[in-house]
Amino acid sequence: MLKLKGVTMNFGGIIALNNVEIDVDEGKIIGLIGPNGAGKTTVFNVILGLYTPNRGYIRFENSDITNKKTYQIAVMGISRTFQNIRLFRELTVLDNVRIAFHKNVKYSLLDAILRNKKFIKEEEEYLKKAEELLKIFGLYEKRNELAKNLPYGEQRKLEIVRALATSPKLLLLDEPAAGMNPQETQELKNLIKFIKEKFNLTILLIEHDMSVVMDICERIYVLDYGEVIAEGTPVEIKRNPRVIKAYLGEGDFGFAS
Ligand SMILES: Nc1ncnc2c1ncn2[C@@H]1O[C@H](COP(=O)(O)OP(=O)(O)OP(=O)(O)O)[C@@H](O)[C@H]1O
């Protein structure tokens, strides 16, 4: 479904990605791990068209998306969440989701100004879909609260809801468990598996919490200094000497378990 081939990305003298090759098969949850500064977020940014790689190419389904713009890539069906939560903090939970739907609007500006039938019908549809998503994520009761007042774990969930509003085929999650307590993390694991099935998603996941990666990912890519140093199942990755070495000095990444 997604293929990165020979992707190299330089920032001035820094080689953030060096000849990166990643294959994401449809319907899978794939993990992307690596020590700090390894290049994980840069992988997301080249996929999403925020950066154009210096070398290599990226294919999504049957299209070359290497030089496509971010909005074109979104329309093709790739959506993301951010490492640093990006919500409209002063808006309600519900409005945060409704706004996310507006990337898909079919009515014209004139329809909106006139508030005609087409506009009202479409807005009603978005409201219904937004409410459905909030129910799935257990956030419906909080729909009228301001986003900034949600506990951290729920703000992260709301980010995922917003990313789903565009009906993506491929969802890129950037550290979804960051800042979550163990109970929230456990819920998140179940939720990611659930939405993958429910919405027919393929998921590429950056995560530092090894329990999340090892429990829900079917395959894992390990980046170190911008290079893919290993690829395999969770069990293979846990045992891989290069991976263990790369993580030495990085503190407790749960590899002992
Ligand atoms: N826009 C940029 N300009 C210059 N250097 C950058 C830029 N983006 C990333 N880098 C550099 O590229 C390297 C990879 O960074 P990246 O953020 O992709 O790592 P990461 O694996 O996501 O790290 P972390 O786990 O800390 O989020 C780092 O050396 C970083 O400083």
From TrEMBL:
Keywords, alphabetical: ATP-binding, Nucleotide-binding, Transport
Protein's UniProt keywords contain Zinc-finger: no
BP GO annotations: D-alanine transmembrane transport; L-alanine transport; L-isoleucine import across plasma membrane; L-valine import across plasma membrane
GO cellular component labels: plasma membrane
Entry superkingdom: Bacteria
Gene Ontology terms, MF aspect: ATP binding; ATP hydrolysis activity; L-isoleucine transmembrane transporter activity; L-phenylalanine transmembrane transporter activity; L-valine transmembrane transporter activity
UniProt domain ABC transporter: residue ranges: 2-250
Pfam families according to UniProt: ABC_tran, BCA_ABC_TP_C
UniProt cross-references to InterPro entries, sorted A to Z: AAA+_ATPase, ABC_AA/LPS_Transport, ABC_transporter-like_ATP-bd, BCA_ABC_TP_C, P-loop_NTPase
PANTHER family for this protein: AMINO ACID ABC TRANSPORTER ATP-BINDING PROTEIN (PTHR45772:SF7), CONSERVED COMPONENT OF ABC TRANSPORTER FOR NATURAL AMINO ACIDS-RELATED (PTHR45772)
Annotated protein name in UniProt: ABC transporter ATP-binding protein
Species, as recorded: Caldicellulosiruptor changbaiensis
